[in-house]
């Protein structure tokens, strides 16, 4: 219910019970246990809150503005992250964007790489892309050759490379070798990656500036999530068929609980 609070004013107790897998009486008992007379009372409260969203947002922002811990103003950092998110959305619909989505769809193999602290982001993007299309792999460089990409059999491979400071030797060398072999590279990097445009004309820069201890990683996830959404739209029925097939395999092997 917390995760779907914006939908609750339009629901009824029986529908929520069916979605969660409990009885309507259980929903009613839960609401009474947290102080509501019933689902109707909760809906009325939420409708009243929705009628004045500006006040709610203002109040929440005021609380953030006043939250200063160890000299760090959270509101200043929030503004940095909001600006970075807006810049990510501005990539959508550009010639670079359209070219990249087509490449992610049409390449017979897509390799994804990110080293050190970016290995997790690269792995996540590859795993989610693999749900949508076959021929997706992660390059970790353990073999010291990147042979899957550089000495493989794919006719139209491409590489998606994540990078941010400090830059690893692997990233630049790998991008340079791909350029030498004519393998398309999509770089997703921060604004300080000075060598990216020397290796490829497909560079997505995200702003990772932060007042916190670590640079912001959220812009990377926002960008890749948008990419995956557009890949689905481009693949259409192909993605639907693959998702159903993988879902059946997950059920067969019990990968996820009920």
Name given to the CATH architecture of the largest domain: 3-Layer(aba) Sandwich
* Main beta-sheet annotation: 5 strands, parallel
Report the total helices. Answer: 12
Subunit arrangement of the protein:
single chain
How much is the radius of gyration in Å?
23 Å
Distance between the termini: 19 Å
Measured as a percent range, the helix fraction is 40-55%
CATH third-level topology of the largest domain: Rossmann fold
Q: What can you see in these coordinates?
A:
The longest helix has 18 residues. The protein has a five-stranded parallel beta sheet with strand order 4-3-5-6-7, with helices on both faces. It folds into two domains: 43 residues, no CATH class; 174 residues, Glucose-6-phosphate isomerase like protein, domain 1 (Rossmann fold, 3-Layer(aba) Sandwich), CATH 3.40.50.10490. The protein is of the alpha/beta class and 258 residues long. Helix 5 runs parallel beside helix 11 and helix 7 packs parallel to helix 11. It is globular. It contains twelve helices and seven strands. 55% of the residues lie in helices and 12% in strands.
In short:
This protein has 258 residues and is α/β, with parallel strands linked by helices. It is 55% helix and 12% strand. The chain has a five-stranded parallel beta sheet, with helices on both faces. Strands 1-2 form a two-stranded antiparallel sheet.
SSE topology sketch:
Blueprint: H1 13-20, H2 24-33, H3 39-50, H4 53-65, E1 68-69, E2 72-73, H5 74-89, H6 95-106, E3 109-114, H7 119-132, E4 136-139, H8 147-150, E5 157-163, H9 169-181, E6 185-190, H10 196-199, E7 203-206, H11 218-235, H12 237-253
Parallel strand pairs: 3-4, 3-5, 5-6, 6-7
Antiparallel strand pairs: 1-2
Helix pairs in contact: 1-2, 5-11, 6-11, 7-11
């Amino acid at each position: 219910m917390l995760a779907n609070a914006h939908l609750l004013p339009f629901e009824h107790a029986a529908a929520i019970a069916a979605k969660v897998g409990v009885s309507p009486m259980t929903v009613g008992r839960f609401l009474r246990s947290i102080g509501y007379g019933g689902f109707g009372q909760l809906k009325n409260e939420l409708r009243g809150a929705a009628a004045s969203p500006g006040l709610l947002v203002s109040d929440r922002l005021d609380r953030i503005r006043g939250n200063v811990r160890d000299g760090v103003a959270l509101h200043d950092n929030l503004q940095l992250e909001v600006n970075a998110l807006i810049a990510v959305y501005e990539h959508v619909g550009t010639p670079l964007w359209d070219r990249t989505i087509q490449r992610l769809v049409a390449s017979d193999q897509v390799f994804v790489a990110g080293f050190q602290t970016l290995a997790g982001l690269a792995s996540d993007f590859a795993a989610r892309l693999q749900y949508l299309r076959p021929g997706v792999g992660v390059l970790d460089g353990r073999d010291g050759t990147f042979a899957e990409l550089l000495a493989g059999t794919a006719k139209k491979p491409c590489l998606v490379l994540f990078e941010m400071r400090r830059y690893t030797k692997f990233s630049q060398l790998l991008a340079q070798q791909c350029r030498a072999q004519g393998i398309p590279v999509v770089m997703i990097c921060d604004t300080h990656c000075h060598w990216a445009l020397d290796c490829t004309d497909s560079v997505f820069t995200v702003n990772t500036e932060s007042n916190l201890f670590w640079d912001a990683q959220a812009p990377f996830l926002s960008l890749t999530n948008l990419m995956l959404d557009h890949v689905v739209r481009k693949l259409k029925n192909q993605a639907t068929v693959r998702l159903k097939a993988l879902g059946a395999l997950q059920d067969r092997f019990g990968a996820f609980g009920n």
